[in-house]
Specification:
single chain, alpha+beta, 2 strands, 6 helices
Length: 172
């Protein structure tokens, strides 16, 4: 349902459309089983995770922000997996998918890959917020500041959003 919600917010797809695109990707062996509510992977998947992440980083333009290191422990927890693990892209995905897949499938696959890379990114997004309140003749003036210290996983998210905007311009 999280993927369906995000797909709706980003692309405007209904829950059923997202599920249909996922099912098609599954049938094409480009995504794992689509009917799961798990957000975790099992311990036996940890070894193959770095290879999958590197393949996704190569296959999608936003992957250039991926630092190359994989923090598998952030997504590995077999106790939280019931019937099926989280939805993943498969090793069958390559950079040519964008040209071969219909738009909806391409978009959902891109979203799955982006979420995977963000989830295993070893670097946190760290920022610093500052709030200053100044009193001048009984009037309070407020100034706020926001400074990014480390982009972390947010760099991948920004790349995903930038790529999304570029594709929307091309499609228009």
């Amino acid at each position: 349902t999280t993927l369906q919600r995000e797909s709706n917010c980003i692309y405007g797809y209904t829950a059923q459309q997202t599920l249909d695109y996922l099912q098609s990707l599954y049938e094409k062996k480009l995504a794992t089983y689509p009917r799961t509510d798990s957000r975790y992977l099992t311990e036996d998947m940890a070894e193959g995770l770095p290879g999958l992440c590197h393949k996704m980083a190569e296959a999608f333009p936003f992957g250039e922000a991926f630092p190359g290191r994989v923090e598998a422990a952030q997504v590995i927890d077999g106790t939280k997996v019931t019937d099926h693990h989280a939805i993943l892209p498969t090793m069958e995905v390559n950079g040519e998918m964008g040209k071969e897949l219909p738009g909806g499938e391409r978009n959902v696959l891109s979203l799955i890959a982006a979420r995977l890379l963000c989830a295993v990114c070893p670097d946190d997004y760290v920022c610093e917020d500052t709030l200053a309140e100044l009193l001048c003749k009984d009037v309070v003036f407020t100034a706020k500041g926001h400074r990014e210290i480390t982009a972390g996983w947010m760099a991948i998210e920004r790349g995903f959003r930038k790529n999304l905007k570029e594709r929307l311009r091309e499609d228009a």
